[in-house]
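re the bet — no i am not wrong, look at it urself. input seq straight from the record:
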Amino acid sequence: MPTATELVEPLALMFEDDGSIPNNPRLALLIYRNAIDVSGTPDRESVIEAVFALISVSSTLGSWRTNPLAVQSIAGEMVTPHAWPRAQVHGFAEALGKRAERFGRLYVDYGVASLTFEWLRTSNNWHPGVKSADAIAFHPGSGVLRILEDVLANGLDVCTRATRTSLTVCTREPLPPDTFGDTKVEVVPALFAFSVLSQRGIRVTPKGIALNRVTVYANLPPLPAGTYEFRVQIEAPPSPTERTVGEIAVQIEDRLLPISKTTGHELTYRFTVDGKQAILWRVTPWISPLTITSARLERVESP
């Protein structure tokens, strides 16, 4: 067993990225021999497991005290099953790192940071209340809805998502078509960045979010006190008579507000909050398919 003053030369093993296991062809796997002294111990496996358990508990408690939001995000990622195509994940992460100039001042959540640590710095890590952000990248599965508040506060209304992954980056304007190379992406309004858009009857098209006899729901974090207005642009098949095309509804906590309907190409809804309530809102088509081409939320009155 080496003493504390001895330098241990680790065994370095290199592994190529085989397309399924995310190995790094430039960074080695380091193995330190005899790092734990188990000589004379009948149950060596239990000793090693106990040491790792203690390290994990100590690390987690320390992280929770210094950055509970990061622990919450990482835990959410760990308990959520993912079946993502490796090429899509790699293409998304590589675009953020190698084409960083296209994103301006970029912030990434903890899930995305773990994918882009080769290129981005800790100064790119997202934290609540970021200002002057040009882009925020995240994974909605982490469950940190607080990110959406910063996305809206910075005017990042256009979100690009790597298909079949939920990995998302929100910007002020649509990104150049070649930003993600061969990685397949879809573009959605930021207000739907945390919505489930993979269910039957909902399809993301180049025009927007197409609804075929199904309602799309979206959550919002508590907004600063004031009066807000949704403005949702829609397209629907022509009708020989003037009839309702779609409707929008807003629920604050457990209180459902009156429903707003339209016969035209825009759904609007105005509501007031005190800064403490969670918000659920939805769009329901009366004519299918109904396509949401854009959606914005604006504070029109302050207290």
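see?? The helical segments are 44-66, 68-79, 86-98, 110-115, 146-153. told u. also The chain has five helices and 17 strands. so pay up
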